[in-house]
Amino acid sequence: MRPGGRRYRTVIAVLAALLLASVLIAIAAGSVQISPGTTVRLVAWKLGLAERPDVPVSTEVILFQLRLPRVVLAVVVGLALAIAGTLFQGLFRNPLADPAIVGVSSGAALGAIAVIIAGGGGLLGGLGVSLAAFVGGMVTAFFVYRIARVGPAVNVATLLLAGIAVAAVISAVMSVVMSFAGEEIRSIYFWLLGGLSARGWTAVEVVGPLILLGTAGAVLLIRDLNLVSLGEERAAQLGVDVDRFKWQAVALGALLAGAAVSVSGVIGFVGLMTPHVMRLIVGSDHRRLLPAVLLAGPTFLVLADLVSRVAIAPQELPLGAVTALVGGPFFLFLLRRERRRASARA
Amino acid sequence: MRTTRSTLGTALLCLLLLAAACGQDEPAASTRGATASSGAGATGTTGVAEFPVTVTDDDGFEVTIPEEPQRIVTFAPSMTEIVFALGLGDRLVGVSGSFDDFPAQAQEIEQVGGAGEFGVDPNLENVLALEPDLFLTIAGGDPWKEQLRDLDITVVTFNATDFDDLLDDIGRVGVVTGAAEGAEVLVAEMVAQADEIAAAVPARTTCFFEVYFAHSLTTVGPNTFIYDLLERAGCDPVTADAASDYPEWSVDELVADAPAVYLVTAESANSLEQIARRPGFAGIEAVANGNVVFLDSDLVTRPGPRVVQGLAMISAALFTTGD
Q: Whole-angstrom Cα distance, residue A78 to residue B262?
């Protein structure tokens, strides 16, 4: 399937349609239903294109201050996690890599928790916590990277193992830190469970640009990602500065994952599953893979968040639990099917 | 304890009728809910609360209620009970959850709780959809309170720390809901009942209150609402020197403290055998003597109108068991 091939174009069109549909459904559904027609008319009114439709003020407030920012946040966080997962998987040439496994998510969560315990929860209007999450993610990424780096070469297996070990240490540190926490325990659990409830437009404004920047950076790395997947030596022979590439990929992955965790807490499976499933559909050429992931990641998280909101409304399910419940079994099913195919071929 | 509910309901109904009957008179009782100021002289002389009313709530926010609230959401079972006791049940459009179970009509009202990471926050969309003009709640939940304020919801927090504070809070709920007179009558009734119970205490005794037991034993410290009730009912808890509000208490210490009566919520344990079976508990004098009392926790943990029933229940239990 070539990048411009007909089947590929169909796949992309379907993915785009799915994203659009899931966004529309997510905006409409909730403990209060808002019909797509009402949404369109309200948005048109906001843009000054039409008269204000005759709907209660509460509908307007729910749409613009709760529903829309939440769906948009799900889109950007889903995008960030899926792209970060693609980068890590490409870099490590290992489908098991994702922000959580490399330790970036735990590092980010630890950064956030440290600030909350230190009493800085309200710093910079709450942005202090997000900033700390981001820094925690970056520091962990580079720490893990340094451990795995022997001389000029980076051993991928060591990197993965180091990531898992660091994540385990961090989760132990968090357990210790949490036993000192009093009232803050609730906001701490948030970082561990993950969720998008009531973050408002501020969260979108803070991490949106960072995530778009990170995504653009990932697009620039497509060629190197493809060459490195042939093997590091091969890539070096073909003119890739492999060490520089690794550095860039780790930094970008940490940027994306850190930004996502800083507003949503730790949400698993999006970064692991999305690139993997897309690879099964469009192949592992990053020129084809990245656009597909770019559409599928947001779709996955928007739908998962929708489930978390409406499944037992007015109560909410933890988003991290939904992604794991939906993603886990599906992922296992795919793995099994792949193995069967592989053994049938052999 | 479920069976006592209907009698309590009847008692409350009588109380309400009484409140309604006295509504026209100038109440002679203490006007404890007077920390609020309102527009033109709402000192009770006219008998009609005048809006706008401005109060400083227990979160330290100065809140102005422009008109008499017609659509109230309560986010705490105790608040629900207070609003009903003030005769404003028909203005309640939302309550927190299934635990808002008293009076029975409260269960018919839409529930807005259960959102957030722990399922204890209000669902903001549901709250907004109800278009409330007053959101009454207790302490805690600062993040979602902030969000509600940002969405232009009038949030008022009253948090009762002891019995006197509860009386004060009921008065203030009366002021912000335009039911100041009814609140004064209710408060006077509660004071009278509490005084009657206090007067009937034959001699003070010592006690211990178990909040729950799960490998370790949790009790109440001296700054809690329940502790105050225990003292008023006539017993001195052995946990007077506890450093925190809900401290863990070692069984060894409890054996040494030797409280005369062991009080426990019916949710935590429901039989003497169950408690005596726990390792070391048989060594506690009160448990050995069978002076264990099971309490309906709703009556002692909810700072609402029914705490006087809770007081009566504790007092009756303290002075009829054992010896």
A: 54
- The architecture CATH gives domain A72-345: Orthogonal Bundle (1.10)
C-alpha distance from residue B111 to each of A275, B77, B86, B137, B317 (Å): 40, 11, 20, 14, 35
- The overall pTM is greater than 0.80: no
Give the span between the Cα atoms of A178 and A119, in whole angstroms: 13
Window A:194-223, CB contacts with B under 8 Å: 195, 197-198, 200
The domain segmentation of chain B, as residue ranges, is 26-35+50-192, 201-318
How many CB pairs below 8 A link A and B?
Answer: 71
On whether any CB of chain B is under 8 Å from the CB of A186, the answer is yes
**Which residues on chain A are in Cβ contact (under 8 Å) with B119?**
315-316
Q: Which residues from A are below 8 Å from B100, CB to CB?
A: none
Q: Which chain A residues touch B112 with a CB distance below 8 Å?
A: 314
Which amino acid belongs to residue A248?
Q
Topology (CATH) of B26-35+50-192: Rossmann fold (3.40.50)
| Side-chain half-sphere exposure of B24, counting CA atoms within 13 A | 1
Contacts of A234 (CB under 8 A, 6+ apart): A227
**Boundaries of every domain in chain A:** 72-345
Chain position carrying tokens 């404890």: B32
A276: which 2 tokens? Answer: 């993997």
The yes-or-no answer to whether B26-35+50-192 and B201-318 have a common fold is yes
CATH, domain range B201-318: 3.40.50.1980
Give the containing element (helix H, strand E) for B294: strand B292-295
The complex's ipTM works out to: 0.71
Tens-digit pLDDT profile for residues A69-99: 999 999 999 999 999 999 988 887 777 777 8
Residue B89 has what pLDDT? Answer: 95
Cβ(A93)–Cβ(A286) below 8 Å: no
